Amino acid sequence: YGMGQYSSGPELSLCMNEVYGLDIDVLMWDFASLQPKYEHLRRTVLWTNRAGMHPTRPILFSFDTFGERFLKIKEFDGITGTGAILMQSEALQRLKLMLPDSNAVLDPEKLPAALRYYHCDGTIEGAIRCEDPMRNFVCDLEDDMLDETEINGGAANPKICRKEKFQTKPQCMDARYQVSWHPGWKDHILKGRLLGHFLINILDDSLFELERLKSVIGSDPKHILAHLEKMEKMDKNNFKKKPPDIKSWEDGNSDVSGGVKPKTILRGQSICHTALLPSKSRLEGISTESEMVGDEHDGFDKGFNQFLMTTPEDGKLPLAFDMNDRQHCDLLEIDHKDFFLVREQDGWVETTVPNDRELEVYKRTSPVEGIIVVCLKICPLNKCPDAYGAYFVRCTLSNAITYIYFHC
Questions:
Q1: Are 55 and 49 in contact (CB under 8 A)?
Q2: d(Cα 47, Cα 76) in Å, to the nearest integer?
Q3: What crossing angle do the helices spanning 221-241 and 185-217 adopt, rounded to 10°?
Q4: From the CA atom positions of the chain, what is the Rg in Å?
Q5: How far apart are CA 374 and CA 403, in angstroms?
Q6: What is the pLDDT of residues 84-119, one digit of tens each?
Q7: Contact between 384 and 407 (Cβ < 8 Å)
């Protein structure tokens, strides 16, 4: 489930079960546009440790450059049963430029749809690499540059690739966020095909491994399953034995966890009451305790329009959305940062966290420690007004419960 303008943590790290579900094979780190490579490793340490806590401990795919951040993810590779794979951005760019050039072939209309007008004269989807961090180093080649720019020895003509990048019309006339640094559907399908090819290879290897196991312990399925479950248990124990990198998490600030033990944040069991879309918890009516269950597009409890909402008659904390966040395009109504709304005019409202459905689905095996983490509504591009304060602020209200406020 992709989340635009969202970093890897803290919310997406602490709420993996609720957002992605309890059965995932691959988890992708693809947050480079909001997490520059020179940022400290705190969020990467959190994301990696929380991925290791997921029930299925998925393969970790990193869409990033090779560097300290990926090496931090790869620390768990092969030790805890969690694989770590890098899809290096520079290598991926070289691969893209090896694909057919739509300006060089005799009839580009005969190319498969996913390749047609994807690569044009050394540009990908009409964009080139640039030195603008605000555009995630991907800039459109502007019209006034076309006549004077030479790429791959010829006059650049990426207009057609740029025009064919998103292809949302006529179904969606007001589609937003169609900017140079956001990839089009052809770029997404290329990454998806590469991931699919990797998974097919893994499946192929698994079949060979299954045959090898049969030659060692016999072909009885029960014996094979018992052996695999034993290995799975060993992997989980290896993960628990490997201590988290608290030094990188604190990054010189020993109070970064707000007085809570770092291992509790990095490895403790958590249950999230999240309003994010898409998330399994919302779509399946778990966080809302609703009988309304749907898919990414419809059928689930959508909450209240914050501008039309009246004071809740039942005194419950309302789930709300910002209508300005919506588009007039059903196909694109997937990714939204909905929220639980607290307003002065509503007086006291209440909620139970976790609710009964969340306790039933996201079972705990360790005692509750009485720590509540509150994620404030995201600020665009992580630039919050001064009134929001620091990155997060701790306020201990009693010895039993600690509140930690995050800017997510």
A1: no
A2: 12
A3: 120
A4: 24
A5: 7
A6: 999 888 899 999 999 999 988 889 999 999 999 999
A7: yes
Please give the structure tokens belonging to residue 339. Answer: 């929220």
Predicted confidence band at 300 (pLDDT cuts at 50, 70, 90)? very high
pLDDT for res 114: 94
Output the pTM of the full model: 0.84
Cis peptide before 55 (omega within 30 of 0): no
What is the C-alpha end-to-end distance of the chain, expressed in Å? 17
Which of 73, 79, 84, 18 has its CA nearest to residue 46? 73
Q: What whole-number distance in Å separates Cα of residue 241 and Cα of residue 190?
A: 38
Q: CB of 340 within 8 A of CB of 306?
A: no
Burial-class residue 248 by CB neighbours within 10 Å (0-12, 13-18, 19+).
middle
Rounded-to-integer distance, Cα 124 and Cα 379, Å: 30
59-80: b or e for each residue (b if 16 or more CB lie within 10 Å)?
Answer: bbbbebeeeebbebbbebeeeb
pLDDT computed for residue 400 by the predictor: 39
Residue 126 CA, chain-centre distance (Å), reads: 26
Residue type for position 183:
P
SS (H, E, C) the chain: CCCCCCCCCCHHHHCHHHHHCCCCCEEEECCCCCCCCCCCCHHHHHHHHHHHHCCCCCEEEEEECCCHHHHHHHCCCCCCCCCEEEEEHHHHHHHHHCCCECCCCCCHHHCCCCCCCCEECCEECCEEECCCHHHCCEEECCHHHCCCCEECCEECCCHHHHHCCCCCCCCCCCCCCCCCCCCCHHHHHHHHHHHHHHHHHHHHHHHHHHHHHHHHHCCCHHHHHHHHHHHHHHHHHHHHHCCCCHHHHHCCCCCCCCCCCHHHHHHCCCCCCCCCECCHHHHCCCCCCCCCCCCCCCCCCCCEECCCCCCCCCCECCEEECHHHCCCCHHHCCCECCEECCCHHHCCCECCCCCHHHHHHCCCCCCCCCEEEEEECCCHHHCCCHHHCCCEEEEECCCCCEEEEEEC
Please, which pLDDT band fits residue 357 given cuts at 50, 70 and 90?
very high
Residues 126, 295: Cα–Cα separation, whole Å: 33
